[in-house]
Amino acid sequence: MNDAAYAKVLTDANEAFLDALGLSEAYRARTGCSMYTVEITLKFLHEVGRDDVMRAQSRVASHDAKRLWLRTTLLVDDRAVATGESLYLHVDTAAGKVTAFPPDRAAVLERVTDHDTEPG
Questions:
Q1: Three-state DSSP class for residue 16
Q2: Could you tell me the sign of the dihedral formed by the alpha carbons of 26, 35, 58, 79, in that order?
Q3: Could you tell me which of 95, 110, 17 has the C-alpha nearest to residue 55?
Q4: pLDDT for 65-120, tens place per residue?
Q5: Residue 52: phi, psi to the nearest 5?
Q6: Local confidence band at 19 (pLDDT 50, 70, 90 cut-offs)
Q7: Taking burial as the number of CB atoms within 10 A of a residue's CB, which of 1, 64, 65, 88 is the most buried?
Q8: 75: Cβ–Cβ under 8 A, 6 or more apart, which residues?
Q9: 67 and 45 in contact (C-beta within 8 Å)?
């Protein structure tokens, strides 16, 4: 796999995780707000072969009123092959500006945040 392929797997995994958090397409349609990716850092740990099956584990590393940091590990047979850290901004697309998460989404983020880690 080349670097773009790892980035695609990481992005798809994070989109599925955002959906589980209630922050994806249905949320955008309902609220007019969206998660904008502003930074992704990838670390490549091991090669992935053509026949390898990769899976992802994403978690909320941290969040504040307007930002969300995800940590994602890409695995093959329980071996980490890459890690990614992603920073998202919560954006009101109609206003064209960053805005705070609504209370219901902020509560979900607080409940699932890994409080033992810091982003970065």
A1: helix
A2: positive
A3: 17
A4: 999 999 999 999 999 999 999 999 999 999 999 999 999 999 999 999 976 655 44
A5: -70, 145
A6: very high
A7: 88
A8: 54, 55, 56, 57, 81
A9: no
